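STRUCTURE:
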């Protein structure tokens, strides 16, 4: 089966613009790959990273067909296999690949992969590979873009504060998006610090949080693979398209009926409004979150064992 899988992945690799293809279990274990620059450790890193994105997308859209992450330097494409929820495909491409041609030419290969897995695996998943801390650090060091420099991984976000004028401007822009694109299911902004801006009196907290998480996980993968900034995430199901655009300190999220508009025209319509939303948010005040000194002292009080001290109020 291994030779047949590799041959099918090589067929996808020959599509113009495709650089790497990896077949992955839903739990993050790579099964087979074909490409131009992935080493063994890089294949593992791609599999484990995209697995997290695949999981979040499944939570939001249980039946999603594909997810596309776009940056200036590349596109990363996740495709579900037909009628096979245990595996998915990750494809990295050049930045200007013809997506319509890619989808059409990949269709038969996806069906072929699904057939081979059903015939030879029959529901039996191979065991997960475990990695020690040293092995994990070695994999991460393999992604360093400059030799001889230490790499640190951290997270820094700001909390955004909107005044009345800015909030009204954002809602007006969302209204214009809603009015110019037919059959919109939901449109909102999910901003750092828990700020949600929508046309309704309230926004579904789960969808706002999961949209933010999906974009955040996708951004980490694109930065790891190409040291580039993520611009757009597009997730498509049989019935809907979910667009996520990066905006200052948050994301713009749009659910729309798949057949309501041509994909290229919809992107063109959204470009103007996304630029205006970014302009408004760029002018908003943003502050770094801080823990009050008294709360910090309570949380970080050391006990005899050097750990955290937990406290509670007695009734």
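SEQUENCE:
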């Amino acid at each position: 089966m291994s030779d047949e899988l590799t041959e099918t992945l090589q067929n996808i690799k020959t599509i113009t613009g495709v650089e790497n293809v990896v077949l992955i279990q839903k739990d993050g274990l790579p099964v087979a790959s074909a490409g131009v620059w992935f080493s063994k450790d890089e294949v593992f890193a791609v599999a484990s990273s995209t697995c997290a994105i695949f999981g979040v997308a499944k939570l939001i859209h249980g039946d999603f067909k594909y997810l596309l992450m776009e940056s200036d330097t590349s596109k990363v494409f996740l495709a579900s296999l037909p009628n096979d929820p245990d595996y998915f495909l990750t494809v990295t491409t050049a930045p200007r690949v013809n997506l319509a041609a890619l989808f059409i030419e990949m269709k038969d290969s996806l069906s072929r992969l699904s057939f081979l897995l059903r015939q030879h695996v029959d529901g039996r998943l191979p065991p997960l590979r475990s990695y020690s801390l040293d092995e994990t650090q070695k994999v991460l060091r393999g992604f360093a873009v400059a030799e001889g420099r230490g790499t640190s991984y951290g997270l820094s976000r700001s909390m955004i504060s909107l005044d009345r004028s800015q909030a009204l401007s954002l809602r007006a822009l969302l209204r214009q998006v809603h009015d110019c694109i037919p059959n919109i299911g939901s449109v909102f902004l999910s901003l750092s610090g828990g700020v949600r801006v929508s046309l309704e009196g309230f926004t579904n907290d789960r969808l706002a949080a999961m949209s933010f998480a999906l974009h955040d996980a996708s951004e980490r993968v694109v930065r790891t693979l190409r040291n580039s900034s993520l611009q757009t995430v597009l997730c498509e199901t049989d019935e809907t398209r979910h667009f996520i655009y990066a905006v200052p300190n948050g994301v713009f999220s749009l659910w729309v009926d798949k057949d309501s508009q041509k994909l290229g025209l919809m992107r063109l319509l959204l470009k103007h409004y996304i630029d205006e939303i970014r302009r408004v948010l760029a002018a908003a005040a943003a502050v770094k979150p801080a823990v009050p000194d008294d709360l910090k002292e309570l949380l970080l009080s050391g006990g005899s064992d050097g750990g955290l001290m937990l406290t509670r109020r007695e009734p």
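REMARK: Residues 302-315 have pLDDT under 50 and may be disordered.
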